[in-house]
Amino acid sequence: MVNYINIDDAYINLIRVSAGLLCGTYALYKSSSHIRSVVIKLALFFSMLLIASLISNSNAHFVNILWVWSYIGIALLIYNHSISVDIAKLILIAYTIVFLVGSVFNKVEASELFTTGSANGVSVLFIYAISLYYIIKYQNFKNSNMPYLPILLLAFFSIWAANRSGLLTAVILAFGAFLNNIVFNKSGYNKGKSIIALLLVCVLIFFITDNYLGSYSENMLNKYDRYGNESVRILIWYEYFNACLNNIEYFLFGAPASDTKIIHYHFYNGNTHNAFFMLHAKFGIIGLIFFVYNIFKFILRQIGKGKIYLIVVAAGIITRGMFDWTSFPGLHDIFFWLIIMYNYLGDDAKYKIA
User: Fold this and answer.
1) DSSP letter at 267?
2) DSSP state of 246
């Protein structure tokens, strides 16, 4: 079967990094001097961390510096309220149409959807679209409810792609959305409606699973034939972690993830299948501590305010990042940079872009 979307990965990356740099330039120009100063210092700081690890272990490339500036630029654009709810909704709809056409109408295998990448990318892209929509919706309507339909679609696409981590993320998002809508939402959202909606989502997920269980089971059996009952991810994490514990340079700057003497599953080309291990591999222990500290700080601040909306979104991003290289650098960097901005610049931009 031919690939459904025949676009070279290099062109996608070029478009993405160019768009990010343009967004960043525009957002910096329109932001206050304080916001501009903080963002530039953050980008410079992480560029230097990346260069340090690059010299030490060759995990990164100088081109990765562009990704740092690109993703922080897009995050700043979101932080400054420059993307409307309608645009975020259109992005979510666009991804939905592409995946629905591939899965339902054309019956394309998830692994064949793109010429590059894997089926895991389906849930990564859709979680990005969901998170973007939820965050921008929250910026415009404080204490807003979290719609269940995007989560249902995520569950469906994850089952289609035989992606367990995507399905787990959908479950966590559904539970978090339910808590937000009936417990923490103070805008008068109908609790009975929320309970009925959640039950409907559960029924539909069961229906989807039942109908796609055959293809899902087949994909799981194929993985079992390749790897047996061992978890390749756990083996990779163990080897990487063990290397860092036994070498002070690796601990400080990251272990060479593509070195087959350290990680034997060399066909992954330096991919540890964990965003936080990739954070350590490319930005060292300082980068890892910085982000982990700020994630906990962000969660505690939101709990202190009696809000969990943004915590639910963050939980989805973090859960998916625990099982794949989604960030550092990656598309989900945008949301981690937003967490940093919320911590150091406040929950809302003081100077919005016109």
Assistant:
1) G
2) T
